[in-house]
Amino acid sequence: MFKRKNRNLKEILTKDKIALIFILIFILVFILGYISNHELQREKNYLWELARVEGLNIAFSIQTLGSEFILDREILIEVLDLFQKEGISFIDIVDRNGNIRLSTNEARMNHNIEIEHPGSINYIQSIDAEKQRILQIIKPFDFDDRFSSDLFGYLFLRDKYLLIGINMEKNYARYDQIKQRVILNYFIILIVLLLGIYTIFRYQEGVIIKKTLENIKDYTSKLLETMDSGVISVDEYNIIKTFNKKSEQIFQVKREDVIGKKADKVLPLMIGNQSIYQLGLQEKKKIETEIELNKNNVKKVLEFNTSLLSEENDDYNGMVILVRDVSQIKALSEEINRNKRLASLGKLSSGIAHEIRNPLSSIRGLAQFLHQSFDDSDERKNDLNIILKEVDRLNLLVNNILDFSKNKRLILSNFSLNKLIEEIIYLIQLENNKKKINFQFVTNNNNYYVYGDRDKIKQAIMNVVLNSIQAINISGDIVIMISGINIKNKENIKITITDNGTGIEKEDLSHIFDPFFTNRDNGHGLGLSISYNIIEMHGGIIRVESEKNRGTKVDILLPIRSKEKNE
Q: pLDDT value at position 343?
């Protein structure tokens, strides 16, 4: 215990030392940078001040020549030649509006410059046509006795400025030399400091890196275990290296059963006829797809996203697979889309049914009148009988459409679901004489009671059973089973209706609850739509599983309200 505390104390002291060294280095770097910057700024200010002083001295010297020399451009050019070694680029005479009236540089004639401080000395930094940095010194003329004796010069130079353009490139070159020297000194000292830091880090890096790696490993492990997506990683030899907790839940496989084993053997995942591992590792493809997985009679829709693991030399040494179970999202999306279609079709159907009903009434009335007008021996009476039957069939369809589209009001009561199903089987057996149907009612000896609309639920179950009968060609079996099931800590009754009929095409499964969708010539496609609405109104769920030529299974889930007899 003492050794452990001592080791922890040493680690704390080591961290304090490193922090102190960093603080000292930061302070030294800051002081060094401040001193270097101050020195550079001082040198820069000195060079600029030197240029301003030299420029003003030259301006005073030119002004002493007198107006007869200043106003003569040829003389000014000669004066410029004398001062070019001092860095003078041009000499201008500028009026108070900033217009250049006279210049040794003909290209500057009649140009305009901005005088920020009229009547005072102005310093302007600019760049000439040759990209040379220029300091322009603009000085107003001082009129002494010499200028006063020259009336013409006085009149012309009054309210005007003498502009001296000084080329600053030599000054900047000198400044750059000073700057390089200061920066070199700075980096020499900085390198010495960094070498000291490097020595300290080399001493400490073993402990720090080891501790950091342990923390990263622990954090990564916790992150993988708490992720809501499955994470699977395989190396370049397709050996599973990572398999988090969510992956265990999704695939119902223990981690120890797959880690260190060939992925395509213990966890085969196929896209068409190709393995997802082959596509990712060998063909170097990024995969974003959905795969339907059926295990232990449970269907799941899984979303896969893969990415390759690369090294510094761009070689790939493995692959990471992210897996997300989107079964509930898919089911919810399909249910939302189905409800939207039902709502739209309900409104459309109601409008069409109302428009059809009035003409049908007129047709039936006229056909009935003609039917009564003919003698019984008249052959046309048989044709009218057909018309009346078809009109009645259309009226029945219109009534079904209106019943489907209107808002239904439930008449609620407690009733025995077992008795209701026995009643449905009895009624169907009485009416069905053409097909040999073997009904089997399976229950676990519990009498389940439902709080709902008895007639509506009877209609919903009856529609499903009739669909099963129609799916059987000549003879077959229909099994109705009732059982209790717990979903999200709530008790529900599960009614399962299974037949061995022709089944449903896979592409039609998502449309079987759509109004008017049917594959039969004599069907109107409203039975299952009405059943879906009724079960949904009772807070239940209806699901269908089917395979072509293998039969169909329909699950109806209803919440249990009470088990007390109240019929």
A: 61
- The DSSP-derived string for 201-257 is HHHHHHHHHHHHHHHHHHHHHHHHHH-SSEEEEEETT-BEEEE-HHHHHHHT--GGG
- Summarised one tens digit per residue, pLDDT across range 361-399 is 777 777 776 767 777 677 777 777 777 777 776 776 666
Q: Which of 310, 325, 340 is a domain's end point?
A: 325
Q: Are residues 416 and 537 in the same domain?
A: yes
Expressed as residue numbers, the domain containing 428 is 412-559
Q: Would you state the structure tokens that stand for residue 138, as one six-digit string?
A: 């603009």
> Which residue, among 342, 348, 352, 345, has the nearest Cα to 394 in the 3D structure?
352
Least confident range from 24-33, 91-100, 195-204, 336-345: namely 336-345
- Report how far residue 266's alpha carbon sits from residue 252's, in angstroms, rounded to the nearest whole number: 12
Q: pLDDT for 399-457, tens place per residue?
A: 666 665 555 677 888 888 889 988 888 888 876 567 788 888 988 777 888 888 888 88
Point out the domain boundary residue: 297, 325, 353: 325
Number of structural domains the chain divides into:
3
For residue 467, the surrounding DSSP H or E stretch is helix 454-471
Residue 98 gets the label, from left (phi > 0), alpha (psi -120 to 50) or beta, of left
Torsions phi, psi of 313, nearest 5?
-90, 20
397 lies in the same domain as 432: no
Cα separation, 493 vs 417, in Å, equals: 9
Q: Which residue in 362, 463, 357 sits closest to 402, CA to CA?
A: 357
pLDDT of residue 556: 92
The answer to whether residue 13 sits within a structural domain is: no
For the domain that residue 445 is a member of, what is the CATH number?
3.30.565.10
pLDDT of residue 436: 84
- 104 within a domain of the structure (yes/no): no
Residue 117, classed as helix, strand or coil, is coil
Distances (CA, A) of 369 to 358, 388, 393, 494: 17, 11, 19, 52
Instruction: Decide if pLDDT at 535 tops 90.
Output: no
Average pLDDT over residues 354-361: 67
Report how far residue 420's alpha carbon sits from residue 430's, in angstroms, rounded to the nearest whole number.
16
List pLDDT tens digits, range 223-265.
777 777 888 888 888 888 888 888 888 888 888 888 888 888 8
Smallest Cα–Cα separation from 123: which of 184, 165, 171?
165
The reply to whether 482 and 544 lie within a common domain is yes
428 and 517 in a single domain? The answer is yes
The reported pLDDT for the residue numbered 555 is: 92
The reply to whether 273 and 357 lie within a common domain is no
Percent of the chain with pLDDT strictly greater than 90: 3
More confident residue, 28 or 133: 133
Cα 501 to chain centroid, rounded? 45
Q: 73-83 and 2-63 helices cross at what angle (nearest 10)?
A: 140
The CATH number given to whatever domain includes residue 312 is 3.30.450.20
Tell me how crowded residue 502 is: count the other CB atoms within 10 A of its CB.
Answer: 18
Has residue 76 been placed in a domain? Answer: no
